[in-house]
C-alpha cells in the first residue's frame, strides 16, 4: 500500500499528488511534502549511510539541522550531493539517490569499517597513517577518500545560473515563526522598511508543527491572517526559501534565496538561487530553537529521531515513521509530543521520562525515572530496551523513537561577530550573550523564550524597541492568547554504562567514547576536542550534537557545562552552494575583462591573446606558414628593427595632471626633476616608494605649462593613481593640482622602427612638421591626423628604435590601426604583440615589471644618479640609506650565453665560475630572458652583485628547477645601440 | 563594514582600499638633520592599539577621496570619518 | 566638424549602438554623449559657477547629485570635480569647448572615449537595479548620481526618473563585460 504511514490532516494538498523516486524506486507524495516526509509516508526509514562507519541511518530531524538524511538530488549535470532530505521540497519527478554506500543502501560493503571501528577512533588520521610518509598521498588518502566522504559531485559544469543582489531595510527579521511574524506585523504596521526572511517554503516556523490555538484560531489560520496582512504592505518584503546565513559588521547580512530549488529545473534564464547582501539598520533574530537528543547505546538506528521532529511530521505532514513509538524525555515537551502523536492515532508504546516526578498521563503509559538504554534493528529500529526505576529492564517493540532532550536556542548568527553564548540554568541551554552591538537583537525561542505566548510577545516588544532607536514609533499589536507553558527540564544528557557505542554526532560518527579518548589524551578544551574528534563539523555543524558532547566533557572534567563553555559558530548557518557564491562570475565572465581598441581588428588578424591583468592583449600575430610562436615573435622583432611595426599600448596607465602647481607636484612624486621640462617635451620618470625602492616608471609629457600627461605601467595603473591621489590629498593638499585617469579615453599605438617617421608622415596631417628637427626625440604635441582628427603624438621609444606613440579618441582606435597598416604596406609594416614588445625592450635593456618588482633600488637599475637631491620627492630620504646605496649591491646587467645554443631561463641564479652552485654563493638572478633574433642567441637581463664592474666576466647561470647549468658572459644591459643613436635619427 | 562617507553617506567598505595608519600624513621634513631616522620611524614604527585607531581609506570605487576613519580595532565600531585633505591641512600639511 | 577619414566604433565594438529590450527593460547603448571632466582650481569656485551658469542655467550640483539643463548634464564625481555631458553630435570637441568657457578657473579633461553609456528604461527598474549594485535603488530620485560597483566595475549611475529611467556610465574597455552583466540581470528579473 502506498503511503501507509500517512495520517489524517496536515498541511499537504492531497488533491495534488507528486511522483518521485528514491534509489530508482518510485513513490508518491503530495504538494507540501519534503523528501523526508514523503519517504516516511512511504515507510522508508533507511535513507543513508554514515560518514565514517557506513552505519545505516534514517532521518533524524524535520529541519535544516539534519545530520543523517543526506541524499544526492537530481541527476546528470544537476546532481547535487549532500542535500538534506528534510529541506528538499518535493516536486513532481524528483529523483534522489542515497549516497556513501556501495553497492546499495541496504547492503553496503564498506560497512566493514564499522567492524574495524576500534581502529578508527578519534584522531585516527593522526595516528594510523603516519608511516611511511610517501604513502599518504598515494595510498592512504585516496583510500580514505573513497571510503569516507559524502555525496559525489557530478563532475560536469553546473548548467544553472546563479545571481547576486543587494537589499536595504530598516529591520531585517530572520525567521518567520511566532516571534518573527509578530515583529513583522508590528514593524510593518509602523511603516518601517521590513524584510522577513524564512528558510522554509512556508511562513509560520514552529507554529506549522503544532496543534496550538491562538485565541480561537488554529495556528495555521493565524499565520495565514498575518501573512495576508503583511503581503498588502508595500514596505514589507516577504521572502520564503531564504536563509540568512551570515552576519557581518555594521548591519550587513548575507542570505541565500532558493528561487528554483523546488522546481525540476529553473525556467530559462532564471537563477537557481540568489545570494543577497542585505544592509539593515537593525536586525532581529527570531530563528527559533533546535531540539537535542538524549544519547544512549546504539541510538543511531533508522527510526531513532528527535521527538519534536516526530511531532512536526505528524502535525504538519500527517506522517509517522511507524505505528508504535517510544518517547524518551527529560522535560515536559516530550509529553507534548506524545500527546500530539496519540491524538493522531499513533500508538505511544511508552513515554520514558528520566524524572522520578514526571507528570502522569491518562492517554499512554509514562515510565517515570526510567531510561532507554539500548536499541535493536539492523536496518531500522525494532525495539528499545528500557531500564525502569526499580532497575529492571524491559524490551519495548517500536518502529520509531523520539528523543526529547530539551531545546537549544538558535544562537548561531549572534556568534558571527564573536558573541559568546552564555549558559542558562532555567532552560539548560546556551542563550545569546547580551549584545552590546545594536545591529542584532534576539526574540522568541532563539532568545530562550520557548512558549508561543512568550515568542509573540517578545517579537513585538523587540520590534518596538529597535524601531524606537530609528525614530519610528510602533504600537503593540493585539496578540492572541496562546500557549504559555513553563519549561520543566532535568539535566540529563546521555545514558551512562553499557559497552556499545553511544552516538553524539551522527554526521561525523563521534561517540561518547571518542570524547573520552580525546580527553584522556589531553584534548580537554572544547575547541581542541572539536578539532581532534571532528565533532560538530560538516554540513550540520553539530546543531544536534554539540551539547551532548559538552555534557560528556563536563562530567569528565568535573565541571559544569557552563564552565566547559561552547564552541561558537561561523557563517554559513547552513551550507551554501559554490554556484551561488560565484554568481554571474563564471567562465569568461569570471571577472570583467578589458579589451583594447584594436581588439576586434587583432582578432581578425588571428592574433593570439594573453591576459595582462584584466586586459586581453595581442601576444603575437601568426601569419601563414608559422607553426611555432617563436617564428612569429622573431619575425615581428626583426621587422621592427628593419623597417616598422605597430603595437597597441593603450593599456599603459594615463593620468592627466593639470593645475598651476602640476610641475611641482610631479617633482614630488618622481625622484627625478620635472619642473624645468619644456612644453612640448616628454621625460622618463622613475617613481620611488617612500622606503626608497622603485615603484613604477613611465613618462610625463608636458602639453602645456599647467598640463602633463603621465603614463604608468599597465600593471600599476590603478595603484599609481591611488598613490598620486594620496600625495595630492594627504601630503601636499595645498598644491594647485588636479588629477584624473584617462587610460581608456585614448587609443594609443606605438609605431616603431627606422621607417616609423615615413609611415607617420602619411598619417599625420601635413600642417604638422614631424621631421627630426621639428619633432626630435622626446618631443610631444597635439596634432591632427587623417584629414582633421585630433590626436596626440609622443616621440618616445620602448624598443630602442626611432619610435612614436600616437593617441586618438578610443572610438577611432580600430580605424587608426587599419589605416596605419594600410599606409605602411610600402614599408612592410607589421603589427607586433606583447611578446615582441618584451624582446625589443630586453634587447634595449629597458627595465619593466620583472625588474621593478618591489626589491630594486634606483641604483640597482643603474639610475642611482637620477634621484635628485635638490628637491623633496617621495623616497628620496630612505633611498639614501647606506644599505641601499652600497657599492657591492646588485646591478642590472645583460647576459649572453657563451655557447649560443644555450637557453637562459628567467629566475635562474648566478654564480661565479669557480664557485660551487649553492645558496651561499648566490651572486644574483635572471630577471628577464628572451631569444634575441638580433643577437642570434638567448639573452637576459639580470641583477648581479657589483654587476656594473663585471662586464666581460664569464659566470654560471644555474637553475636547480630544470637542472641547467650554463656559462654566460656579463655585458651591458643594452644589447643594441647602447649610445641611443637609433632613437635620435 | 560600512563607512559613513562625510560627503556621500554610508558606503560599503568593499568600495574602499585600505592603506594604514593615518600617521602616514605626518610625513617628516626631508631637510631635517635627523631626516633618515625620522623617515625610518615614520615608515616602520606603528602603534597597534587595541582600541581607537585613525586610519586611511581610499574611496577607489567612489569619489576617490582619501578618508581618515577612526575605528575601534576590537569592535570595528567607526566613530568618526573625515576627508583626509581636511585632516592633513589641520595637521599643518600644505604644499 | 572636420572631414577626417576614420570611422568610429561604438564601445561594444560595432558600427551602430546596441539596443536590447528584455521583459519591460530596455538597455540602450548611447554613443552620442560627449563627456568632459571639470575640476575647479584653487579659490576659483565663484568664477567657475558664474561662467557655467550660461550653459547650466544654475549652480553645479553637490555630492551624489546631477543637474540636467537643456541638453547638458553635470554630475558631481568627486571633491571639486564634475563630469559634464552633452550630445557628441553637437559637441565634437567638447573638452576644448568647455575649456574655452571656463578658461583657467578649472582644469578640463577629455573623457568622452573613456566610457560606455547605457540608458536604461522600464516601468519598474528597482528589481533589476537590486541585482547589479548596492545602492538603495528604491530611494533614488531624479538627479541622484553616484559612483558604485557593478560586478567589480566602477560605474556612475544617474537617476533621470525615479524607478524608470537611469543612465549607467561604465569603463569603456569593459563595455562587453558590463553589457553582459546588465543583460543577464535583466533576463533574470524579466
Give an overview in words.
- The complex is a heterotrimer of chains A (985), B (95) and C (190).
- In chain A, α17 (629-642) packs across α22.
- In chain A, strands 8, 9, 12, 13, 14, 15 and 28 form a 7-stranded mixed beta sheet that branches. Chain A has a 6-stranded mixed beta sheet with strand order 41-42-43-40-34-44. Chain A has a 6-stranded antiparallel β-barrel with strand order 45-48-47-46-49-50.
- Chain A is elongated.
- Chain A is α+β, with helices and mostly antiparallel strands and 985 residues long.
- Among the domains of chain A are: 13-124, 2Fe-2S iron-sulphur cluster binding domain, sarcosine oxidase, alpha subunit, N-terminal domain (Ubiquitin-like (UB roll), Roll); 161-289 and 409-469, FAD/NAD(P)-binding domain, CATH 3.50.50.60; 601-650 and 745-841, Gyrase A, domain 2; 653-744, Alpha-Beta Plaits (2-Layer Sandwich); 876-984, Beta Barrel (Elongation Factor Tu (Ef-tu), domain 3).
- Chain B is α+β, with helices and mostly antiparallel strands and 95 residues long.
- Chain B has one domain (2-90): 2-Layer Sandwich (Folate-binding fold).
- Helix content of chain B is 18%, strand content 35%.
- Chain B contains 2 helices and 6 strands; from the N terminus they run βββαβββα.
- A 4-stranded antiparallel beta sheet of chain B has the order 3-4-5-6.
- In chain B, a hairpin with a 3-residue loop joins β1 (2-5) and β2 (9-12).
- The longest helix of chain B is centred in the middle third of the chain and has 10 residues, at 35-44.
- The mean pLDDT of chain B is 96.
- With 190 residues, chain C is α+β, with helices and mostly antiparallel strands.
- Chain C has 2 domains: 19-31 and 113-189, Gyrase A, domain 2 (2-Layer Sandwich), CATH 3.30.1360.120; 34-110, Heterotetrameric sarcosine oxidase (Alpha-Beta Plaits), CATH 3.30.70.1520.
- Chain C has helices at 45-56, 94-102, 126-132, 175-189, and strands spanning 19-22, 25-29, 34-40, 66-69, 72-78, 81-86, 106-110, 115-121, 145-150, 153-161, 165-171.
- In chain C, the strands form 2 sheets. A 6-stranded antiparallel beta sheet of chain C has the order 1-2-8-11-10-9, covered by helices on one side.
- In chain C, a hairpin with a 2-residue loop joins β1 (19-22) and β2.
- The longest helix of chain C is centred in the last third of the chain and has 15 residues, at 175-189.
- The interface between B and C is medium-sized, with 14 and 13 residues.
